[in-house]
Amino acid sequence: MQIKLISVASLLLLVSSSSLASYIEVLDDPQQSTYHLSKYCFEELQQLKVQSPNAWVGLTEYVEYSHGAYGFNYRVYHALSYFDTEELAVIRLDATPVPPPIPADASSYLYSCSTDMS
């Protein structure tokens, strides 16, 4: 019975995660991820810096959704003491495709930023 419950739970986890994101990658390219963070989510990062002056972006994930949208998850950490760090928040940048017709001088994506506190 326990194996059956684990199998059902694993299946539900697989179905729920695949409907949300079709691709997730941890980025090692600080230039690309920093560009998007500074352009679209500067205010959110500054609010976290006010709350915790020693906050820093420790990990950046690129997320690609099945409906053409993409986003970045910026995991922000802070040091509680010299040896102890924890995740403070996740800044999420979502880029949603703009439906046609798109003006020639406009972006083909709408960008929105949000903060999820840990």
Question: Any key phrases for this structure?
Answer:
disordered N terminus; alpha+beta; 34% helix; 3 helices; five-stranded antiparallel β-sheet; elongated; 118 residues
Account of the protein in words:
This protein is an alpha+beta fold and 118 residues long. It has one domain. It is 34% helix and 38% strand. The chain contains three helices and five strands; from the N terminus they run H-E-H-H-E-E-E-E. The protein has helices at 2-20, 30-40, 42-51; strands at residues 23-26, 56-64, 70-79, 85-97, 109-117. Strands 1-2-3-4-5 form a five-stranded antiparallel β-sheet, with helices on one face. The radius of gyration is 18 Å and the shape is elongated. Mean pLDDT is 80; it is low at 1-19.
In the sheet with the most strands, the strands line up as 1-2-3-4-5
Q: Shape from CA axes?
A: elongated
State which percent range the strand residues make up.
35-45%
User: What class do helices, strands and sheet pairing give?
Assistant: alpha+beta
Number of domains: 1
- Count all strands and give the number: 5
- The radius of gyration is 18 Å
Determine the mean pLDDT.
Answer: 80
* Biggest beta sheet attributes: 5 strands, antiparallel
Helix content: 25-40%
How do the SSEs run, as a string of H and E?
HEHHEEEE
Distance between the termini: 34 Å
Sequence stretches where pLDDT stays below 50 over 5 or more residues = 1-19
Number of helices: 3
